[in-house]
């Protein structure tokens, strides 16, 4: 989950008005786009798939200590809200998704979203499940594993996928990506909870 | 024809000569002049002034059924007393009073007038003045000429009680006597001198009148004389037509050519048709102006010094004439003593003028010209000697002089016509704003809030005829309609501001951007956590107000306007609201895209 190199913040991160919601619609749109890009690259850099806003507002992502500026929880929520909407709705192209089910979060290590009400934890789709599915298919085909059966654990933590981007991926995200492939008819999932296997066609 | 083209001010109103004042303004007036009718649609093109040194008589005709009340004005070129009537655009004629001749005119005429007056200045007059002490009716001295007399003129005492009369009493008596006298009774000298004041069109008038029939009617007894005669066969009155026309042929610059009125024919009278009423007041004021004849003062000589007047003793015609001559050489001493003496004389003269002016309201009006000149001189002197040390004093002085100038007041207008008052107020305001001497708008950075303007404007009216806020706003809303060089603008927040007509948001934004670039080149005093060479620094409304000389409210509105256009963006913090160049939607975006993929 951690990398040695520090995250390279974009120049706008040091621009004080960046942390103030802009009343001008055009400016506001660019501002949200930039925030969206920043959040995505931040999560990607840290291999983070879900973002808890409660924690994030204290992290360097939303808190610029040099400028002594921060995006408060409400503003951060507004940005993620915008990211969850599709572009047709004037949003950020569904680059995020709220995790509303508190039970779902408890199975993951970040579980402090429970009990905080709605809209505190969100998936950040720096790759959307459909895009992950494509990546998986490419890898499977590239390594000649078509028709073979792999466990989900193997996919995420296996040595064969060590160099791949989806190494160490969140299990929920992996399952959603595999489900996309199932719908496309490129894979089949079997097995029980926690021990799923997958067969690629 | 005595229509003259008219200079208009920026507010499309007649440009008055320094000492002219507005008497009355009335709209919806039709003008009949022979067959010519003037429709004033394009103000610049169709405005017309009746340069009427030459109105003689005014008759009014009441309205009957559908016919509007009319006023007929008869020109009498032989007489040199006249009101100057100016007509402004958009059918709001204004009557102005002329009290100054063109300098060239008066200069060229004085020597002649003077030459002849010395031989025949005692004119028969039957004026009388009433002694304020014993109320005995005294004859006005025969050599008392209201045009040239002044407070320094020696007056004979009352015949019954031996008390010297106040100057103004005699002046008023003489003026009313002159007013009641018929023009043909004037002496030949007067008419000759005046003939040269007449414009070319008048020469045409007399030529076409007299020349066509080959005969000359006597102006006094109306006997028709042979054209070659110089004097009337019956009564001996001089016939001015022949001699006057001879040297009028080459008189310069016929004014009718400048006029935009196509009619160059002579008309006997001018009819003004008052479609919206107001004829009575107009008539009254015009008559009042005719009776008062303030323009008589127009070529009155400078007031002679008391010492000179005293040394003359009793009136002798020649002496008095000489004393009225501006060109009369004054043998004052040279050197410091001379300067001192001249200063002393000037001070005494000023005292006299001020003293006289307040004796009587009428006299004040008659002395208005001198008082204004005095006020201006004082203002100039104080500005020169104190040299910025007391700008407020000189401002007050010059404003007091300006306050005597042209301002439309409610009672100058027909009380019924609210819209006319508003449009006149709008013009007043526009003139006030664009007046370069005051530079109101310039001082405020080209833009000021309506509230500020209202306060400043009312203060400049010295507490009289104040404009009410609602009238003021309505007048400001008329600017656009009247095509005046200022405009009213409403910001998003509802703040109303006044700007020059050609001032646009783009210009403001250009200014702001130039300023921002300037800021970006200057390193900040304290180290800042952001890259100042890329982002510059933030500005507040106060800084903008200081920089562009705007008021803070206006500056805040302008910055928000620029933000609205996407030029600036805001930062809210504990220091308050600050504005930055918009780096959010302009630069750095590409870096982001690169990072995101």
TrEMBL record, chain A:
Sorted alphabetically, which Gene3D superfamilies does this protein's record hold? Winged helix' DNA-binding domain. Chain C. Domain 1, Winged helix-like DNA-binding domain superfamily/Winged helix DNA-binding domain
Q: What is its main location?
A: cytoplasm
Q: Which domain of life is it from?
A: Eukaryota
Write out the entry's keywords from A to Z: Cytoplasm, Protein transport, Transport
SUPFAM superfamilies, alphabetized: Winged helix' DNA-binding domain
InterPro entries in the cross-refs: ESCRT-II_cplx_Vps25-sub (IPR008570), ESCRT-II_cplx_Vps25-sub_N (IPR014041), WH-like_DNA-bd_sf (IPR036388), WH_DNA-bd_sf (IPR036390)
Question: Might you report a single GO cellular component term?
Answer: ESCRT II complex
- Show the GO MF annotations: protein homodimerization activity; structural molecule activity
Protein location: Cytoplasm
Swiss-Prot/TrEMBL GO biological process terms: macroautophagy; protein transport to vacuole involved in ubiquitin-dependent protein catabolic process via the multivesicular body sorting pathway
Pfam families to which the protein is assigned, alphabetical: ESCRT-II
Matching PANTHER family: VACUOLAR PROTEIN SORTING-ASSOCIATED PROTEIN VPS25, VACUOLAR PROTEIN-SORTING-ASSOCIATED PROTEIN 25
Q: Which family does this protein fall into?
A: Belongs to the VPS25 family.
What's the name of the protein? Vacuolar protein-sorting-associated protein 25
Q: Which organism is it from?
A: Penicillium nalgiovense
From TrEMBL, chain B:
The yes or no answer to whether the keyword Zinc-finger is present is: yes
Pull one GO CC term from this UniProt entry: ESCRT II complex
Q: Which PANTHER family match?
A: VACUOLAR PROTEIN-SORTING-ASSOCIATED PROTEIN 36 (PTHR13128:SF12)
Q: How does it assemble?
A: Component of the endosomal sorting complex required for transport II (ESCRT-II).
In the record, what lineage is assigned to the organism producing the protein?
Eukaryota, Fungi, Dikarya, Ascomycota, Pezizomycotina
Q: Per its UniProt record, what SUPFAM superfamilies does this chain match?
A: PH domain-like, Ran binding protein zinc finger-like, Winged helix' DNA-binding domain
Check the UniProt entry and state the signal peptide residues, or none. none
At the top level, the lineage of the source is Eukaryota
Record's keyword terms, sorted? Coiled coil, Cytoplasm, Endosome, Metal-binding, Protein transport, Transport, Zinc, Zinc-finger
Q: What is its main location?
A: cytoplasm
Q: Which residues form the GLUE N-terminal domain?
A: 6-302
- Where does the record place it? Cytoplasm; Endosome
Q: Which GO BP terms apply? A: protein transport to vacuole involved in ubiquitin-dependent protein catabolic process via the multivesicular body sorting pathway
Name it. Answer: Vacuolar protein-sorting-associated protein 36
Keyword check for Iron-sulfur:
no
């Amino acid at each position: 989950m951690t990398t040695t190199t520090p995250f390279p913040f974009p120049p706008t991160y040091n621009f004080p008005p960046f942390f103030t919601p802009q009343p001008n619609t055009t400016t506001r749109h660019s501002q949200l786009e930039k925030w969206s890009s920043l959040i995505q690259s931040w999560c990607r850099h840290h291999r983070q798939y879900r973002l808890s806003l409660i924690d994030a507002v204290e992290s360097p992502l939303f808190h610029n200590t040099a400028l002594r500026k921060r995006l408060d929880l409400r503003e951060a929520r507004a940005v993620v809200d915008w990211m969850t909407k599709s572009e047709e709705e004037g949003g950020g192209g569904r680059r995020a998704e709220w995790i509303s089910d508190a039970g779902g979060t408890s199975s993951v290590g970040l579980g402090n979203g429970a009990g905080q009400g709605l809209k505190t934890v969100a998936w950040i789709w720096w790759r959307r499940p459909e895009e992950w599915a494509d990546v998986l298919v490419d890898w499977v085909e590239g390594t000649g594993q078509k028709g073979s059966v792999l466990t989900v654990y193997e996919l995420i933590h296996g040595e064969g996928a060590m160099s791949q981007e989806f190494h160490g991926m969140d299990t929920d995200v992996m399952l959603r990506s595999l489900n996309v492939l199932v719908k496309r008819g490129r894979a089949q999932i079997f097995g029980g909870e926690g021990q799923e296997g997958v067969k690629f066609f | 024809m005595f229509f003259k083209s008219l200079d208009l001010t920026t507010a499309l109103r007649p440009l008055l000569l320094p000492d002219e004042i507005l008497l009355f303004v009335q709209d919806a007036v039709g003008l009949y002049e022979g067959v010519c009718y003037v429709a004033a649609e394009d103000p610049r093109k169709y405005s017309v002034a009746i340069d009427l040194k030459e109105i003689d008589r005014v008759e009014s005709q009441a309205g009957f059924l559908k016919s509007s009340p009319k006023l007929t004005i008869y020109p009498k070129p032989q007489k040199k007393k006249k009101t100057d009537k100016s007509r402004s655009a958009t059918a709001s004629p204004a009557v102005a009073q002329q009290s100054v001749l063109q300098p060239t005119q008066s200069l060229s005429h004085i020597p002649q007038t003077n030459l002849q007056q010395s031989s025949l200045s005692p004119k028969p007059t039957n004026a009388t003045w009433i002694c304020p002490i014993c109320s005995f009716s005294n004859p006005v001295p025969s050599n008392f000429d209201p045009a040239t007399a002044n407070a320094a003129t020696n007056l004979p005492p009352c015949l019954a009680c031996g008390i010297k009369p106040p100057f103004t009493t005699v002046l008023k008596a003489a003026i009313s006597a002159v007013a009641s006298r018929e023009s043909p009774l004037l002496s030949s000298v007067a008419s000759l001198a005046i003939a040269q004041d007449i414009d070319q069109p008048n020469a045409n008038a007399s030529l076409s009148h007299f020349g066509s029939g080959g005969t000359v009617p006597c102006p006094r007894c109306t006997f028709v004389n042979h054209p070659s005669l110089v004097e009337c066969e019956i009564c001996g009155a001089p016939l001015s037509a022949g001699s006057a026309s001879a040297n009028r042929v080459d008189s310069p610059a016929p004014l009718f050519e400048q006029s935009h009125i196509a009619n160059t024919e002579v008309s006997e009278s001018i009819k003004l048709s008052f479609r919206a009423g107001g004829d009575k007041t107009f008539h009254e004021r015009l008559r009042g102006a005719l009776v008062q004849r303030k323009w008589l003062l127009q070529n009155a000589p400078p007031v002679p010094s008391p010492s000179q007047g005293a040394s003359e003793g009793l009136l002798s015609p020649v002496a008095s004439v000489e004393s009225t001559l501006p060109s009369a050489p004054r043998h004052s001493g040279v050197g410091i003593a001379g300067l001192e003496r001249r200063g002393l004389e000037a001070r005494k003269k000023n005292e006299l003028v001020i003293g006289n002016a307040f004796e009587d309201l009428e006299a004040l009006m008659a002395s208005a010209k001198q008082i204004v000149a005095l006020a201006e001189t004082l203002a100039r002197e104080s500005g020169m000697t104190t040299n910025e040390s007391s700008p407020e004093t000189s401002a007050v002085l010059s404003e007091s002089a300006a306050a005597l100038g042209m301002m439309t007041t409610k009672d100058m207008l027909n009380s019924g016509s609210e819209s006319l008052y508003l449009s006149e107020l709008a013009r007043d305001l526009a003139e006030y704003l664009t007046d370069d001497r005051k530079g109101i708008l310039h001082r405020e950075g080209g833009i000021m809030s309506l509230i500020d303007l209202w306060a400043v404007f009312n203060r400049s009216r010295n507490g009289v005829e104040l404009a009410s806020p609602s009238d003021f706003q309505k007048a400001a809303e008329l600017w656009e309609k009247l095509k005046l060089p200022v405009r009213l603008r409403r910001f998003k927040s509802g703040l109303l501001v006044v700007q020059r007509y050609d001032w646009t948001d783009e210009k403001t934004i250009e200014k702001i951007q130039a300023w921002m670039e300037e800021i970006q080149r200057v390193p900040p005093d304290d180290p800042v956590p952001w890259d100042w060479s890329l982002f510059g620094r933030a500005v507040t409304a106060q800084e903008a107000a200081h920089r562009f000389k705007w008021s803070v409210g206006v500056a805040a509105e302008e910055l928000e306007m620029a933000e609205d256009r996407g030029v600036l963006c805001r930062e809210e913090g504990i220091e308050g609201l600050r504005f930055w160049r918009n780096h959010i939607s302009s630069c750095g975006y590409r870096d982001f895209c690169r990072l995101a993929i």
